[in-house]
Amino acid sequence: MATMGRYCKAYLVDVLKRFPGWPDQLPENARKDQGEQADSKSDPDPPDDEYLFVQESLIVTRGVLLGEDMVFSAVTPEWEKFCRLDLQFAIPPELLDDAESSSAT
Question: What burial letters (b/e) apply to 26-48, b meaning 16+ CB within 10 Å?
């Protein structure tokens, strides 16, 4: 069953490609539009002006749902740093659980 996370943020593919470890080709499941046929001869990767979603876990998905249509899941220290510094990705404090808020202080 599809689930929503607490937070995700949309970024242009062009911005995500600035990460040195971004794959040259995306996984097969991430390269097709919902209605596109699998045998389509069109360019399989999303255009640079398409939006992808960085989830709270730092996994990138095509849509807003957790664990569906994953595009990039190599969550390394380098990717975490890129997300925090370059993308300025952070879960807003008002969305953090009480336990996370208290442990951060």
Answer: beeebbbeeeeeeeeeeeeebee
Instruction: Give the H/E segment covering residue 103.
Output: helix 98-104
3-state secondary structure 41-68: CCCCCCCCCCEEEEECCCCEECCCEECC
| Cα(34)–Cα(31) distance, integer angstroms | 10
In 3D space, the residue among 67, 68, 49 whose CA is nearest the CA of residue 10 turns out to be 49
**So what's the pLDDT on residue 103?**
52
Q: Tell me the whole-structure pTM to 2 decimals.
A: 0.76
Q: Which of 105, 54, 52 is nearest to 84 (CA)?
A: 54
> Could you state, in order of their start, the residue ranges of all structural domains in the chain?
3-22+49-104
